[in-house]
Design brief:
With about 425 residues, the chain is an alpha/beta fold. Helices cover about 40% and strands about 15% of the residues.
């Protein structure tokens, strides 16, 4: 495959790469090749500098102070909320809730909406490719409410069995909780179709968007999802911050998830009343600097644009897939026709952890294990896989080094 890029050419992405200080370092004397972006992306200097500036010049608690610094921090945090709202095209800032990450977002919905609305005989539909964060909270709420869980199977190529999904839907289905992009396989699910079928059956839809928002545009008004959640650290932003989107009418009907400061209107020993959205679900002092940093990460990604990001990452994925298919002992797990820039694979007679360890000594960072998706591993009858996940700052030359490292693995184990 040619290394020529037809859109904004390689120089554009070389300049993007220069925005990420960590990528210039050496690991064991080798240039760092970071291919673990599905777990967490690196941070551009724009985000790092933004967070530093917040702590150095404008940090104070938000929403509660009348002094200058509190007003500056409050305005910056609410500006970030509005930036995220525009990024995913939510209808209102009130629908954007700051959480610690997608895991907390899903647990919030499971605990607040689930305990209030699910009962014995109700059904929740998940898919076989879900991250543990979109499985375990529903198991917990099912134990508490008596609701049952149904599972959409996936094909050998890693695609949802949509005909089986339609069979699972019934008037007992109250919620469909689904990933937008599989973290273990890279599969992009037909989300619009899933939401339409679910709504026709009277069910709400929660979407785990962690692996989607770094790679493709998300329009929540067009999708019509009832809940959508993602983590900042996978979107070139800080860890410990994320977003839960919910339709305002649904959020209004839900009880608070946690109690404390910020989420109240009035408090007395006779009882308390709740703050308006989104603050009803933001108890306590929030992660102020990182919320502001997430807004800066969204601005950074938006400035580059998903047309350019998508074209570059699609080229990386195609090139890496072609190179790996040339290695006879490599078997790629998940070959969906519509994929994000993620490749999971195994090497015959070599444990994935050994692959990862050898690559690491050459400065190449990949993820090995079950990727918090053990049902996927069970589906393909493998204990674990090696996962290479690409971002907009990765290069074709890095893929060549990655393949060279895999050839070294073969030599060692042959």
């Amino acid at each position: 495959m040619s290394l020529n890029i037809e859109y904004s050419d390689k120089m554009h992405f070389a300049s993007i790469r220069a925005d990420f200080p960590i990528l210039s370092q050496k690991v064991y004397g080798k240039s760092l090749v970071y291919l673990d972006n599905g777990a967490s992306t690196q941070k551009p200097k724009q985000v790092i500098n933004n967070i530093t500036a917040t702590y150095e010049r404008s940090y104070a608690n938000v929403h509660r102070g009348v002094h200058y610094l509190s007003q500056i921090s409050t305005d910056a945090m609410e500006l970030a909320r509005g930036t995220v709202r525009g990024f995913v095209n939510a209808r209102s800032d009130s629908e954007i809730i700051f959480v610690r990450g997608a895991t907390e977002g899903i647990n919030l919905v499971a605990s607040s909406w689930g305990r209030e609305n699910l009962k014995s005989g109700d059904e929740i539909i998940l898919s076989e490719m879900e991250h543990h964060a979109n499985i375990v909270p529903w198991q917990l709420v099912s134990e508490q409410t008596g609701a049952t869980i149904k599972v959409i199977p996936i094909s050998d190529s890693g695609e949802l069995e949509m005909s089986e999904f339609q069979k699972l839907l019934s008037d007992r289905t109250k919620l469909v909780a689904i990933t937008h992009v599989s973290n273990a396989l890279g599969t992009i699910v037909p989300l619009s179709e899933i939401i339409r079928y679910s709504h026709d059956a009277g069910a709400l839809v929660l979407v785990d968007g962690c692996q989607a928002v770094p790679h493709l545009p998300v329009d929540l008004q067009e999708l019509d999802a009832d809940f959508y959640t993602f983590s900042g650290h996978k979107l070139y932003g800080p860890s410990g911050i994320g977003i839960l989107y919910g339709k305002e009418s649904i959020l209004e009907s839900m009880p608070p998830y946690q109690g404390g400061g910020e989420m109240i209107d009035t408090v007395s020993f006779k009882g308390s009343t709740w703050a308006d959205l989104p603050f009803k679900f933001e108890a306590g002092t929030p992660n102020i600097a990182d919320a502001i940093g997430l807004g800066e990460a969204v601005n950074y990604v938006s400035s580059i644009g998903f047309d350019a990001i998508g074209a570059h990452e699609a080229s990386l994925l195609s090139y890496a897939t072609e190179r790996l298919n040339q290695i006879e002992s490599v078997k790629i797990i998940g070959n969906a026709s519509n994929k994000a820039a993620i490749i999971s694979f195994v090497i015959e007679d070599v444990h994935p952890h050994d692959v990862g360890t050898i690559l690491d000594r050459d400065g190449i960072a990949v993820r090995t294990g079950h990727h918090c998706a053990q049902p996927v591993m069970e589906r393909y009858d493998v204990p674990a896989t090696v996962r290479a996940s690409f971002a907009m700052y990765n290069t074709f030359e890095e893929i060549d080094l990655f393949v060279k490292g895999l050839q070294k693995v073969q030599e060692i184990f042959s």
